[in-house]
Design a protein that fits this description.
β3 and β4 form a beta hairpin. The chain is an alpha/beta fold. The protein has 15 helices and five strands. α1 packs across α2, α4 crosses α8 and α10 runs parallel beside α12. The chain has a five-stranded mixed β-sheet with strand order 1-5-3-4-2.
């Protein structure tokens, strides 16, 4: 690979890893988790099958748009080059492409998804441009540009409200966001907590520590309401957090009449139960095989 930027863009090159630099706004972390171990195994056996995408940097070298995890896998395996397609992308186009390249991965953390959606929404808005005063009424199409979150939701197959909820998570303080990433706070209450002020969130972290409990959706909703009215303080927050949560229902009842049509009349309830669990175990093994591919 020549040191100077290639004259022809869009061609795949085998590029030295030292010439590839991470995108400064990349919201996706590179973690040494089971998915990475699986990727490293694939790269070791087959090489990098899908070329990374990069663009020339003014400072020299190339800025990765996609392929941060593939580069890490190559580094860990002691390889010094990887296939890369070089494209001449503008800043916002590079951001949108970077977000879209990984947003469908299953193991993306809520914090990563929140940052990704926010970056993409801001880039889409910049590309659409802001309408002049009064143009919103003249052109519904121009006015629709302000609903970038709905447009992104359509692309992702989710609602605009879901996009807006995820973006709201970027307002959480790092300790609370970490609790969401760790699964200690569910997404629904997290959306409510994101509206609290920074001081209120800091107080909540202290209260969670003292009570050894995280807020439910109902508790988070009441905190949000009190925050909006200026009544959320140490006392009101503590009184909410000290409430006993209702136990989560974990039992499932299956109707015998509905199940009976799938079994011979001679089968007893115990025999039916054994067949059901065998089928569930087979289904679980199938899913595990599919996920390991």
């Amino acid at each position: 690979m020549p040191k100077k930027p290639p004259e022809t863009l869009g061609i795949i090159y085998r590029m030295p890893l030292e010439d590839l630099h991470p995108h400064p706004l990349n919201p996706y972390g590179v973690r040494d988790d089971p998915a990475m171990q699986e990727l490293m195994g694939s790269v070791k056996e087959n090489g990098v099958l899908i070329p990374a995408i990069a663009r020339p940097r003014k400072e020299g070298g190339y800025e990765l748009i996609s392929g941060h995890r593939r580069k890490y896998a190559c580094e860990q395996l002691g390889q010094d080059t990887m296939p890369v397609m070089v494209l001449n992308l503008k800043d916002d186009d590079a951001i949108i492409r970077m977000i879209d390249s990984n947003i469908q991965r299953e193991n993306i953390l809520p914090s990563e998804r929140a940052k990704a959606y926010r970056l993409k929404m801001e880039a889409v808005k910049r590309k659409a441009g802001r309408p002049q005063k009064g143009d919103e009424k003249k052109s519904p199409k121009i006015s629709a540009n302000f609903r970038s979150d709905d447009s992104i939701g359509d692309q992702e197959g989710i609602s605009g409200d879901t996009i807006r909820n995820y973006i709201s998570l970027t307002n959480l303080t790092p300790p609370l966001m970490q609790m969401v990433d760790d699964g200690k706070i569910a997404l629904s209450p997290a959306y409510q907590l994101a509206s609290l002020t920074e001081k209120e969130q800091e107080l909540l972290v202290e209260t969670i520590g003292s009570e050894q409990s995280t807020p439910s959706l109902s508790q988070a909703q009441r905190m949000k309401k009190l925050s909006q009215s200026g009544e959320l303080n140490e006392d009101t927050m503590l009184s909410i957090m000290m409430e006993q949560k209702k136990p989560v229902q974990s039992s499932i009842t299956l109707s015998g009449e509905r199940l009976r049509k799938y079994f011979p009349r001679s089968y007893s309830p115990i025999q039916m139960e054994e067949v059901i669990f065998k089928l569930l175990e087979a289904w679980q093994r199938k899913r595990q095989r599919e996920q390991s591919r």
